[in-house]
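A.,

Following up on our hallway conversation. Structure tokens first:
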């Protein structure tokens, strides 16, 4: 890990990742051992590693997988689901000489299949709406946020954790900086508080770990994950930004981490404070989640338009 001037063997790396994660959880006051945590797992390396690490740290963490119904020629959603199931059945695999063992209780994996509940897959909804016609990702992101929030709230969880890593956060930050999108910048943080009725508290415990580090963790720990990116992500600006940032990182190790940490500091110091204008939110008439629109929220409007 050139950015930390640190090299570890597999055994010590498996201790270093939980140690670091625990440090970030405390630093950003994400949650405590008495909280019930819902981890959103996509079947990818970040979220499955996160679930593993939280369990090893002794947190009460259940998982939630959202079946999006994406095929993309690689049976993407089915494979992703399979990885989450496989993770749970392999969970007890022992780690030698660890201070962070897997607990002896079995966590739950909640599965929400969009097509079964709402009658359509993400590609189907995207195809008939202006919002998703060119890029299903916008519809998909909206649906995932909505369902994660609902599941966390209905399941009585204190906090919702996602597997976003440093590379994800930096790519988003980079994009929002290029356009100086103040209202997005002010809301990008390791913790999003539950500051409106019906909103779950959201945390990103891996936000300071490089993607290489979460991938290495999954590899050394023997966690099987889906290697394919979502087929719709191909050619996206965030992937292009990641490539540019990786080139910069190669030339000056640590640049991504510094960009992110200095942003968090500037944000804490109030650089974007005047953007934080108060938006009046109402409860959606159908699902009850907060929305700035009158009547139905954006998610319910998507399904309402079904012909
Ligand atoms: P992405 O937006 O695909 O980069 O994923 C970011 C995070 O959202 C992941 O690390 C997961 O925590 C969560 N996530 C993505 N897709 C799903 C899914 N299908 N089911 C549950 N959680 C997901
Ligand atoms: Fe939703 Fe790709 S994961 S469009
Ligand atoms: Zn709604």
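Then the amino acids I'd put at each of the 307 positions:
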């Amino acid at each position: 890990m050139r950015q930390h001037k640190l090299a570890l063997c597999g055994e010590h790396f498996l201790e270093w990742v939980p140690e670091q994660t625990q440090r970030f959880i405390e630093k950003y006051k994400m949650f405590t051992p008495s909280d019930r945590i819902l981890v959103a797992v996509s079947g990818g390396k970040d979220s499955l590693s996160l679930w593993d690490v939280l369990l090893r740290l002794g947190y009460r963490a259940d998982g939630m997988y959202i079946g999006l119904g994406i095929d993309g020629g690689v049976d993407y959603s089915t494979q992703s689901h399979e990885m989450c199931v496989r993770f749970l059945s392999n969970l007890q695999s022992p780690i030698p000489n660890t201070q962070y063992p897997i607990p002896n209780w079995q966590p739950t994996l909640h599965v929400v299949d969009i097509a079964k509940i709402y009658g359509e897959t993400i590609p189907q909804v995207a195809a008939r709406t202006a919002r998703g016609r060119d890029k299903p990702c916008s519809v998909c992101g909206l649906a995932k946020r909505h369902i994660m929030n609902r599941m966390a709230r209905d399941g009585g969880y204190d906090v919702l954790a996602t597997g976003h890593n440093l590379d994800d956060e930096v790519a988003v930050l980079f994009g929002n900086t290029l356009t100086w999108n103040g209202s997005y910048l002010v809301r990008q943080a390791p913790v999003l508080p539950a500051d409106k009725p019906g909103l779950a508290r959201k945390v990103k415990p891996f936000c300071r770990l490089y993607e290489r580090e979460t991938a290495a963790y999954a590899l050394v720990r023997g966690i099987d994950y889906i290697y394919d990116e979502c087929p719709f992500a191909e050619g996206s600006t965030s992937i292009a930004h990641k490539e540019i940032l990786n080139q910069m990182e190669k030339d000056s190790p640590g640049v991504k981490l510094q960009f992110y940490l200095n942003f968090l500091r500037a944000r804490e110091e109030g650089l974007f404070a005047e953007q934080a204008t108060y938006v009046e939110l109402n409860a959606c008439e159908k699902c009850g989640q907060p929305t700035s629109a009158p009547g139905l929220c954006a998610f319910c409007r998507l399904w309402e338009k079904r012909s």
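The mean pLDDT is 93. Curious whether your intuition agrees with the design.

B.
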